Amino acid sequence: MMASWQLWNQISSLYKPRNIFQVQRRALCAVRADYVGVYQRIKDVFHKKEEPPPPTLIAEVRSDIGSRPSRRYRRAGQLPCVMYGRKKKERIVCSVDGKILRQQYLNRKERFENTIYNLMVGPKTYKVLPRQPAIHPVFPPVKLLSVRFLKYRPGKTKFPLPVKVVGDDESLAVKRGALVLPIARRVPCVGLEGLGYNLPDHIEVDVSNIKVGQKVRLGDPVVKVPKDIKPLVGDDFLLYTVHGPGRTTIFDEDIAGTGTAEGE
């Protein structure tokens, strides 16, 4: 259990006071104005729950392929699935428990495709990544129709990692009208041996101190690559460029050069 002074530091860290009197005053104002929010933060400090690991999915190999057999499996509570590997002979057509996979999809939501599952097919167990879950367009709230699994190998299985911009609300260049234009929205990566069962969500790019005309590359200090992730591109891989007012673009220089040549 956390001590009282540690809890006080947690509350005071939410603000930026100058002295202890401002800490007390702002803490009291926060309690009066938003008692529920402060209570929830204190509750999260004492009752911090870790996300349980994903369950092992037990699959049954099926030989019948098509829309009619798939509907028959869904009526029986099974979900049609296909596991793919690097080679064509590694393809396995199977079915898993639909209730377990649907609950995992509802709990993890956007992180569903970034979770490494153990798929047990007979005596063998494979590490897989769910891909392209097919969802019924009308049935409420969520009804999975099928899921594809990609066989995961540490250091070999490639997956794209999205690039996310942070700190744009604090950037002086952005406030003056500069635009941070994406060149590459995803970076091809592989996971190393120390990676757990959750893949990182994104690669962060901090643009709080960025300048007009600057080019952000993968090896720059403002780019934060997650731990146990190895990009498959070099450090000179271009991610973003910054354009804004008060700077001549290449297009303007070409027009100016063309006009001078015609005048001569």
From TrEMBL:
- The segment(s) forming the Large ribosomal subunit protein bL25 L25 domain are 58-138
Record carries keyword RNA-binding: yes
Q: Which domain of life is it from?
A: Eukaryota
Q: Which controlled-vocabulary keywords does the entry list?
A: Ribonucleoprotein, Ribosomal protein, RNA-binding, rRNA-binding
Q: Which CDD domains match?
A: Ribosomal_L25_TL5_CTC
Q: Which Pfam families match?
A: Ribosomal_L25p (PF01386), Ribosomal_TL5_C (PF14693)
Q: Give Gene Ontology CC terms.
A: cytosolic large ribosomal subunit
| GO BP, sorted A to Z | translation
Identify the residues that the record assigns to the Large ribosomal subunit protein bL25 beta domain, covering every copy: 158-245
Q: Does the keyword Ribonucleoprotein apply?
A: yes
Name the PANTHER family for this protein: RIBOSOMAL PROTEIN L25/GLN-TRNA SYNTHETASE, ANTI-CODON-BINDING DOMAIN-CONTAINING PROTEIN, RIBOSOMAL PROTEIN L25_GLN-TRNA SYNTHETASE, ANTI-CODON-BINDING DOMAIN-CONTAINING PROTEIN
What is the name attached to this protein's record? 50S ribosomal protein L25
Origin species: Fibrocapsa japonica
